[in-house]
Design goal:
The protein is mainly beta. The chain contains two helices and ten strands; from the N terminus they run E-E-E-E-H-E-E-E-E-H-E-E. The model has no long low-confidence stretch (mean pLDDT about 95).
Amino acid sequence: MTNDLLLVTAKCRANDQCRFEGQNMFLDVTLTNNQKGEVGLPLEYVRKAGPIIKLTDARSKAETYLKSNLADPSLRNNLTMLQPGKSVVVEWVITSDELRHFGGTYVDLFAELTVMAEVHAGGKRVDFRGSTTLRIVSKDKP
């Protein structure tokens, strides 16, 4: 499995500091082709399935994985060709209940987002896995 075909980055939409205010957290996960050739990505499949998300409580170090969506496996065959330097965005949401998973009203979490897919690069299909991490903290300290 390779992780250098695409660069994975993420940000909290309209909330650059990822401050949790008791509402759902809307994310934009960006996949950028950092290769010299085009990369075929099953974008529709990735958008339906979503990223794998591991939440880690910064205080207790406890971890949990959020439930992924089921996506039609046939969508893996529909490739979107990403030219060198071009990006696509996958929109996602972590619910307020998921963010409060570790209890209490104050949230201080690391959200590791991982995108996995079989992509087409260099004339062959290869397994891709790329990750990025966001820090999500309550707006007000307890």
